[in-house]
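Quick question: what would this complex look like in 3D?
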Amino acid sequence: MDVTQSAMLDHEPTHQGCRVVAPVLARIGDKWSVLVVMLLSRQSCRFNELKRRIDGISQRMLTLTLRGLERDGLVLRTVTPSVPPRVDYALTELGRSLCGPVIALGQWASAHVDEIEAAQAAFDARAEG
Amino acid sequence: MDVTQSAMLDHEPTHQGCRVVAPVLARIGDKWSVLVVMLLSRQSCRFNELKRRIDGISQRMLTLTLRGLERDGLVLRTVTPSVPPRVDYALTELGRSLCGPVIALGQWASAHVDEIEAAQAAFDARAEG
DNA sequence: CTGGATCCTAGTAGATACTG
DNA sequence: CAGTATCTACTAGGATCCAG
């Protein structure tokens, strides 16, 4: 464990290092942001292209998600004033740098999804009885 | 990039690898779960001990957060039937394994919080004009 | 001490319809 | 095509009271 990591652990959770995680998780932890980021990590995309690829997202939520990511500097929005209008979304450098940690979390999720579902089933079974 | 990582990227986001991330992020991405997990990563804790340490959490939300984590097999709840009753919460092995990825994300957040805030300020400034 | 039960509020998601 | 506007329904979260 390097010094940065130990710095993350050596504190009360009310301290800065931990507090700063919450807003980040609030951003990428919502229902759609990760999907958008992972999609854009492969290639930039137009609005409706994203909408088609993200199954079940509403137009409104895609707009809000993209605005949030754009505001945080993770996504770049490029408008081409043509007819019909064309808007491309791409990850910024900052957005790409987020992919690493997110992928790590994805790997963890993939690796343990069975354990988690088993634990849920066991918990629910206990709750029944 | 190793093969596992490329496996995470080489798919449409509607596919399994990406879909499985969402529920995990929904769990740890809520307002309190990460704080609880990070706290318990250092030492097991009693209910009110957690409540005191996590500034601003309500009794209700701590209960719900712990139940959720317990259901997912991340936290172990141990009841000591004494008077007064004593309940200890500790991370399971699964819970501890989650700390690594979460810490990685925390490091990313710490490293880029300034960039993010600058991007937000810039975005909000543009929105004004 | 450890919560369960209840009530209340504000925010947020989703569907739908409309616009440049 | 790429959104905005609006309306409704749901849920998260806090406050409070109660119980083992």
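Answer marked as accepted. Residues 31, 58-61, 64, 85 of chain A lie near DNA strand C (CB under 10 Å from a C1').
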